[in-house]
């Protein structure tokens, strides 16, 4: 019911916005000398760090393409739109399509923003190339302009659920049969999409999902979420969210004495921002299903060392968020598609994608490239890391793990 109401509101608002601004349009180009990328992300507010991290990946990719002569003989320019809500996504997409006349949209840290911004972009005939928004629904809407180069929530749900059986349960000397699991997730289409897959797969594997708890990621107090999970006395706690709410949940769990034998976070909880917010003792052994991390083996992620060197030169240090490398990889795949198509037109770009297929483990983020009928890259898969001795260590897939890395048993 929640999804149906949200979808209806989005369609009404987008229709009104397009009627006010004028629908339709072309992607013929913003000028003779530049190709403009419209980047819609949160650049202010509680989630700004994630939006900045994603955009940094695009900036490194843009620097590379411009240094090599540009795209279709033109320099690439990033034009930013600040959006943390679906409504802001609509207004910023309208502004970038009209006032800024961007050629292509690329994003997005927030699935709910991607949902509305991409619908608005379609009204103007602009491609929306998604690198980071995970919600499964995004590729199921039948939009004529949407392509996702990164993983979906389905992939995150599948890998996290499979890892409970292959990594997490063995770490606590349990079998998945009868394993008690509590699921919590932020309440947008992102968190809901992941939880639906997790619940189905875990139940099919014989686990007992004792509770599924949705929450508002902006809530100042998440004590009730922890209480609901505590009531089920789970062996494993799995939680899907963003950085700030996941940090708050970990803090609250420690305060309320919630200590399941194992914890698996999804989509967040694997950065220095969490490390600064949560004591090491409360992070040790925690698994996180996320994008590929900086420690991944070059053999699985060719180009990762070059990306990290370019990032350090531009921004100093290593990326804080693994989303940055996924965004960088997605932008490079976009540029390759535009060059192959000879155009920024959505239909032309979609048409050439089958000619650009790559095997899994062919890019800096470990992705391959093979798009299905809904223009979802089916070879963009997440990885699993574990907090060990104050740092994250890649433990899945085995081919991506650094030499000698392995999951540790729960302490």
How is the main sheet built? 7 strands, mixed
N-C termini distance: 41 Å
Structural domain tally:
2
Can you name the CATH architecture of the largest domain? Answer: 3-Layer(aba) Sandwich
Going by CATH, the homologous superfamily of the largest domain would be Response regulator
Structure classification? alpha/beta
CATH topology of the largest domain: Rossmann fold
| Shape type | globular
- The average pLDDT value, as a whole number, equals 92
The parts where pLDDT drops under 50 for at least 5 residues are 1-30
Radius of gyration: 21 Å
- SSE string: HEHEHEHEEHEHEHEHEHHEHHHEE
Secondary structure tally, helices = 13
Measured as a percent range, the helix fraction is: 40-55%
Name the CATH class of the largest domain.
Answer: Alpha Beta
Strand neighbour order, sheet with most strands: 7-6-8-9-10-11-12
Keywords: Amino-acid transport, Signal, Transport
Pfam families: Peripla_BP_6 (PF13458)
Domain Leucine-binding protein: 34-388
Family: Belongs to the leucine-binding protein family.
